[in-house]
Amino acid sequence: MSYIISLKKSRKWFQFCKEVSATINNQNKEEVLNLYLESISQYHPLTIAETTLKICKVVHSIALLEKSIDTIKECSMYQGDFSVQIIHLEIQKNLFRVEEGDFEGIEKHLFELKTSQKDLPTRVVEIYHFLGFKYFEKTGNLEYAINHLVSYVELSKDETVYSTLARYTLVSPTFFNFLKIYSIISSTSTGDLYTDIYEIVQNGDTKKILEKKKYLEDTFGEDSRNIIEKTHFIKLINLCFKEKSRQISLEKLQEDLGTEIHSFLLRAFGLGLIKGWVDGNILYFSTILPRTLPTEELEKMKEKYSNWRKKVGETIAMIQ
Question: What GO biological process term is on the record, naming one (predicted)?
Answer without folding.
Answer: ubiquitin-dependent protein catabolic process
